Hints:
By secondary structure, the protein is an all-beta fold. The chain has one helix at about 35-40, and strands at about 5-10, 15-25, 40-45, 50-55, 60-70, 80-90, 95-100, 110-115, 120-125, 135-145.
Amino acid sequence: xxxxxxxxxxxxxxxxxxxxxxxxxxxxxxxxxxxxxxxxxxxxxxxxxxxxxxxxxxxxxxxxxxxxxxxxxxxxxxxxxxxxxxxxxxxxxxxxxxxxxxxxxxxxxxxxxxxxxxxxxxxxxxxxxxxxxxxxxxxxxxxxxxxxxxxxx
Length: 153
């Protein structure tokens, strides 16, 4: 809803009403905030790739990715490429970003968006996970317990 506000000016020490101006509509754009209880746990994609997430406080998350790209060899034998990455993500609202490769691949960025009980992940860059292994996709939480992690290097 638009509203009118009088434009007032001081002229010779007197407050005068000179005109009315149309104020732009102001709409609140509340940022969705997610709690530790909503993000903590193990999240899995249909292909078996998984992300472990733990809220650390101060807008930081510990994240570990275990990815898989399954395929068959020409003779029909099943095989897979695997890739891993972990690090500290920074979260604002419902979206966290991190680079699991650090200085080894500065173009790599993983974005995690927690929405509607799901985790939507996008990946910029190759990220060195292995041929056709990507963190991108839709994940669902399979466990809400605090995950255990290997020590960071």
